């Protein structure tokens, strides 16, 4: 994990269950910027979903903290549908008022370090087709369209794959 306690420095660490509400609020702010149909129905409990992700023994949630505020979050684990050496990035969000400040790149680098340390040789994700900003970010991080999962005509997601450079 990236840890630097200097004032204003970015700290990347595991999220704690008690932070689920803050993480859910960040997720909602980020999600509202790219989903044309808006957020899920109000009866969906994102706080409970994030608490479940944070507490999952087979997954990890990392958060980026700057100045005592959670400003970025990533959730990943190996799903049953993938080979054991492949991780899926389920959620990756940076607070919209902090975009283009290097937070996403630092968080992504921390995720990659965790994946490689855990023996992962590939990562997959799906991204909404209208989220061009995220698609560009992932491309800069080395993600490419997953040839094994071309999008269906009626699907609203693109499937991307990442492998360590040189592999």
Describe this structure in words.
By secondary structure, the protein is α+β, with helices and mostly antiparallel strands. It has a single domain (10-162), classed as Aminopeptidase (3-Layer(aba) Sandwich), CATH 3.40.630. The chain has 4 helices and 7 strands; from the N terminus they run E-H-H-E-E-E-H-E-H-E-E. It has helices spanning 20-31, 46-55, 103-117, 132-140, and strands at residues 10-14, 59-66, 69-77, 86-94, 122-128, 144-145, 157-162. It has a 7-stranded mixed beta sheet, sandwiched between helices. Helix 3 (103-117) links the parallel strand 4 (86-94) and strand 5. The longest helix is centred in the middle third of the chain and has 15 residues, at 103-117.
Keywords:
28% strand; 4 helices; disordered N terminus; 167 residues; seven-stranded mixed beta sheet; Aminopeptidase; alpha+beta
């Amino acid at each position: 994990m990236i840890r630097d306690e200097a004032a204003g420095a970015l700290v990347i660490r595991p999220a704690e269950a008690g932070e689920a509400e803050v993480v859910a609020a960040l997720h909602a702010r980020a999600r509202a910027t790219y989903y044309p149909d808006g957020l899920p129905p109000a009866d969906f409990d994102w706080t409970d979903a994030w608490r479940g992700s944070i507490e999952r023994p087979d997954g990890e949630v990392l958060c980026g903290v700057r100045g005592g505020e959670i400003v970025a979050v990533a959730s990943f684990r190996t799903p049953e549908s993938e080979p054991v050496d492949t991780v899926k990035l389920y959620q990756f969000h940076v607070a919209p008022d902090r975009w283009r400040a290097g937070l996403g790149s630092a968080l992504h680098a921390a995720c990659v370090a965790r994946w490689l340390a855990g023996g992962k040789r590939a990562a997959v994700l799906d991204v909404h087709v209208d989220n061009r900003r995220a698609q560009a970010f992932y491309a800069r991080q080395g993600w490419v369209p997953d040839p094994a999962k071309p999008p269906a005509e009626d699907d609203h997601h693109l499937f991307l794959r990442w492998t360590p450079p040189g592999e």
